[in-house]
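Continuing the batch. This is chain 6 of the set; chains 1 through 5 are on the previous pages. Same settings as before, nothing changed between runs. Recording input and output for traceability.
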Amino acid sequence: MSDRGKRQGASGQGASGQGAYRCFYWVGVLTAILLVVLSLAPPAAHAISLPGRRPPSPTAPTLTTGRSSQQEVAPPLGVQQLQEALEGRRPRLEILAPADGALLEEGPWTLQLQVEDWPLVDAGPLGLGPHVVVQLDGDPPLPLTSTTATMRPLEPGSHRLTVYAARPWGEVVKSPSAQRQIRLHRVATNPLSQPAPGSPQLIAVSPRGTAASTPLLLDWLLLDAPLQNLRSGDASWRLRVSINGDSFLVDRQTPLWLEGWRTGSNAIQLDLLDGLGEPLNPPFNSLVEEVILQPGGESPPWQGGRLDPSTLASLLGEAPSPSAPEPGAEPDPDPDPEPEPVAAPEAEDGVPTGATAGTDSEAEIPAQAEMADQQERAVAATPDLPTPPEPDIAPEAQEPLDGSLEP
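Output for chain 6:
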């Protein structure tokens, strides 16, 4: 082969080598980029698309997590006023008696609480202000505005007693110091009937019972739940909310104000799920509640428009309720009763003998006129007698009409 052919062959081999090198280079770059993307992606166990709750927005209030006919809206104006007034409060709650793990005797028992930095207000016709709620197992919540209560007798076995601070509309104060739970027993302990200590527990709060207007508060209490949402993909629990068959998911302990309820019975189911979407600590964390919407009834004052200053002060315990008088205030005396009219006496024939007593401006009948009237009635009542004949008198013996005598 000539020198020229050798040079061409060598140059061809060099060009092909450089092309292969460039190919390997770009393959390596793409592989590195793919590895970086995969390393940033969440683990497969948490790859479920659960955007969670989004803050209420007047322009786009519709929930986008799942299929639901409910719409999230802003809280009522009265609720916003009370929220602002209670913003600086940091309630601290303790259960003084009974002690955790106590074995109680048969019959009613006394619950004693200690509440700090949280007013306990019963505003009378306005409803409850800030208060505490006691829940024994699955019993309906018991709102309290005092630190002592007599509780129902316990059935044999183990029980959960949960106490938490609540706002006037029933929302749970989510700070750890505002919630307490103890275990109580009667006859003997039965640990298998209760969730394991330290495991996540779901307690339904609102709505329930009967409501007259919307929006309604959807709220719950989650105890011993691990922290999450600190970084992407660290979800360890989700709450599935089902309302009348439609469901959506939330991943934060934030209450929701919802529209879209139907008149009559509404079914609400809450299911606590783990990061894989499986039931978490069943069956304790699957709850069903009912709320009955009856429009036209009386709604609490905070569910209407803005609260006037006196109503706001009464609900916060800063002023007495409308039905309660101020301490030391004397009640207003009863007004003097109006004089009743006095009926005039009646004669035997039923004709009144005098005028009905009236005002001072009316003239009284003179006594002489009354006596003359009585005489006239007496004469009228006398029977008629025959008139005696007049004697015949001579004309000359008659006296003149003027009474004078003739000369």
